[in-house]
Amino acid sequence: MANLVNILQVLGALAFFIYGMKVMSEGIQKAGGVQLRKVLELMTQNKFLGLLTGLIITAFVQSSSATTVMTVSFVNAGLLSLVESAGIIMGANIGTTITAWIISILGFQIKLHTLSIPIFALAVPLTFVRKGKFRFWGEFLIGFAILFLGLHFLKESVPALEADAEILAVLAEYSNLGWISGLLFIFIGAVVSALVQSSSAAMALILVMSANGWIPLDVAATMVLGMNIGTTITAELASLVGNVFAKRAARIHTLFNVLGVAWMFLILPFFLDFLDQVLQNVFYTESAYTNSDNVPIALAAFHTIFNVLNALIFIGLIPWLTNLASRTVKSKGEEDEIRRLDYIGTLVSTPELSIIEVQKKVVHFGEITSRILGFVKSMLFSIDPDEPSQMLKKINKYKGITDNIERELTDYLINISKEEMTPQTSLKIKGLLDTCGELNRIAYIFYQMGKTIDRKQEKKIWFNQNQRIKLQQLFDLVDQAFMIMKKNIAAPIPANVSTNAANEIEGLINGLKDKMGQESNHNLKEEGYNIFSALIYSNLFSALERIGDHIENVTTAVSEKV
Q1: Could you give the percent of the chain with pLDDT greater than 70?
Q2: 132 and 275 part of one domain
Q3: Of 466, 454, 453, nearest in space to 529 by CA
Q4: Which end of the chain has less Cβ packing within 10 Å, N or C?
Q5: How many other CB atoms sit within 10 Å of the CB of residue 60?
Q6: 491: alpha, beta or left, given left = phi > 0 and alpha = psi -120 to 50?
Q7: How far apart are the first and last CA of the chain?
Q8: Which residues, 6 or more positions from 361, have their beta carbon under 8 angstroms from its beta carbon?
Q9: Are 423 and 360 part of one and the same domain?
Q10: CA dihedral sign of residues 343, 344, 348, 354
């Protein structure tokens, strides 16, 4: 019975620690969401910036699993390539090592848990302040205090060696089997990390056990290696609902960590001896092998240096890793290769981060919608008798694509809007929903224009030279409006949105449409003017003018982004 109580105390303390980590992470994400979003916008530029991005985001949110799952989700949506995702994953592995330093210094050296209650006294009032970001900083401080209380309870729950010599005897027995012992403790570290779904919590448990003298430095280091493998389970599980590219991104994470653990395991005794000698000259005077109080610092240093070296080794091998991931994860067909935006980034519970996927997908949505203009134009003006029917098929196909994209984006935005968010983020989500609606309305008008042109040609109704020239001019203006719209959608901040240019081109479209309407009405009075041609002509230029209105509405919606 006593052993059961001890186990429950350890599990409860670990759960308290994990909850504190969650509250702290979510609070700082909400407080610094805009800054995180700006960092994330750099991630697609090259693998080195990707590595830096992964490092910064993970250090900020204190969860490599969150960063990795988010990256898998980006790949699933077609917003990141496998090569680009690899750099971010490597950076995330480095970023997560900061947690070990925070715990080993603040939790073991400074005993920060003694300040937890005063921190609560400061933080709780902040959570009631509705203006600015005080509430989120209050949440961060509460999580910070809970985290170190959890760590304190965890240290108190793990008995000292003299209280349970039998366990020490068991551990000693299994730690003297040479390389088999190493593999066993790697396995244990992987299982613990996979079960708690948090490498930070697993690291805290390893640090406490080593500081209490239960496990020596070399055993603790092998468990840390195992922890690096166990943390890959999260991304593998998240990728199961994604496409083949998401699964390959998760596989890159697994290959990177497993191969890294393999080479470090081969040189581990020599590496630890060298590291201990260096640390004795920097942090402590007595070896971590003989003084368990020094093991937390040694493990934090080992964790960081290992992941940095691993990233430096494999960043030049990213194409090879990508190829290996593609060979080990085979496509199941066309359905498995469809790029879609699925809500699989469940570990990133902050809309400010998740919304990056939507913004990049909306840019793609605007590009797809603008392509339909070219199909409609070719259908109307082509001299090739077979081209109109081919363009009509493309228009119909793209209308289906835009319907699917709008549905994906809307569902995704509804999912992330269920999380607590700042008023600015709420407005941003509304703007993105409005943008998606406007783009799909544009696609629908193009679809209707395609059907109108098809009826025109079926009934052999022709336009005169003036009608063709004026429609060509209107198409060109709408094309210019699309170019401005796409730049505005892709603008990183509202200050870069060109509302004046959008309003100016919309004014030109309206002016030309009015002129075309007046001319058409005047020509109807003339003998020989084809009334059916005039009706279709009016239908088309009115449709183009409505498209211009919706394009302007898109600029209005994206200009409200914060």
Answers
A1: 73
A2: yes
A3: 466
A4: N
A5: 19
A6: beta
A7: 56
A8: 77, 79, 341, 405, 408, 409
A9: yes
A10: negative
Mean pLDDT across the stretch 225-229? 86
The residue segments making up the domain with residue 511 are: 351-558
Helix axes 387-416, 351-381, angle to 10 degrees: 170
How many angstroms separate the CA atoms of 305 and 266, rounded? 16
- In this structure, is residue 268 part of a structural domain? yes
Report the b/e string of 286-324 with b at 16+ CB within 10 A. eebeeebebbbbbbbbbbbebbeebbeebbeebeebbeb
**Element (H or E) spanning 461, and its range?**
none
Check residue 215 and report its DSSP letter. S
pTM of the model: 0.65
Highest mean pLDDT among 30-39, 194-203, 374-383: 374-383
Q: How far apart are the C-alpha atoms of 78 and 362, rounded to whole Å? A: 12
482 and 530 within one domain: yes
Rounded Cα distance between 67 and 61, Å, is: 8
Contacts 24+ apart (CB under 8 A), 115-124: 115/145, 116/145, 116/146, 116/148, 116/149, 116/152, 117/145, 119/144, 119/145, 120/145
Q: How confident is the model at residue 103 (pLDDT cuts 50, 70, 90)?
A: confident
Answer whether residue 346 is part of any domain: no
- Decide if 351 contacts 415 (C-beta within 8 A): no
Residues ≥6 apart with Cβ < 8 Å to 395: 372, 375, 376, 379, 446, 447, 450
Q: Which residue from 398, 404, 483, 481 is spatially nearest to 446, judged by alpha carbons? A: 398
Q: Note whether residue 288 is domain-resident.
A: yes
Average the pLDDT over each of 188-197, 395-404, 538-547 and give the range with the smallest value.
188-197
CA dist 434 to 419, 431, 441, 551, Å? 20, 5, 11, 11
Looking at the fold, whether 105 and 232 belong to one and the same domain comes out as yes
Q: How far is CA 127 from CA 26, 130, 132, 417, 420, in A?
A: 13, 8, 11, 20, 13
Q: What is the DSSP string of 511-528?
A: HHHHHHHHHHHHHTTSTT
